[in-house]
Amino acid sequence: MVVIKVYLPKEATYANDTLDTIKSLIGNKLGGYTVYHADGGWVNESGELIQESVWVIESYHEDVSHARYVGKRIGRLIKRMTNESSVLIAVNTEPIYV
Questions:
Q1: Cβ neighbours of residue 8 closer than 8 Å, sequence gap 6 or more
Q2: What count of other Cβ atoms lies within 10 Å of the Cβ of residue 20?
Q3: Cβ proximity of 2 and 96 under 8 Å
Q4: E strand intervals along the chain
Q5: What distance separates the 2 farthest-apart alpha carbons in the chain?
Q6: Please, what is the angle between helix 64-82 and helix 15-30, to 10°?
Q7: Which of 91, 96, 94, 95 shows the shortest CA–CA distance to 3?
Q8: Distances, alpha carbon 58 to alpha carbons 9, 25, 77, 86, in Å
Q9: CA pair distance 65, 7, nearest whole angstrom
Q10: How far apart are the C-alpha atoms of 69 and 2, rounded to whole Å?
């Protein structure tokens, strides 16, 4: 079984609309999802720690290639809808930056 996790910053532009779109897409393509809140941080190009609240959208699938395909598609969708410069998707703990 493959686990896919999508990280969506809560403060991103149009975050609520984006979350609704992602839930619909994952529901249709992977069969279901769980959404939960997390707080995290990352280091920007200047070496500054950026902390933010995110939604984690988690799902499972039997086919790793399909999970990667859907994950990359969702990452591109998040970038397009929110203007985020980078989006993190994890497939079985393998980070995929879009």
A1: 15, 18, 19, 22, 54, 55, 56, 57, 78, 82
A2: 11
A3: no
A4: 2-9, 34-43, 49-61, 88-91, 94-97
A5: 40
A6: 160
A7: 91
A8: 14, 12, 16, 19
A9: 19
A10: 13
Q: Which amino acid is at 62?
A: E
Tens-place pLDDT, residues 43-62: 988 999 999 999 999 999 99
The residue type of 16 is: N
What are the angstrom distances between the C-alpha of 7 and each of 13, 75, 77, 83? 14, 9, 12, 14
* Both tokens assigned to 63: 């086919």
What's the predicted TM-score (pTM) here?
0.89
**pLDDT of 42:** 87
The CA distance from 64 to 37, in Å, is 25
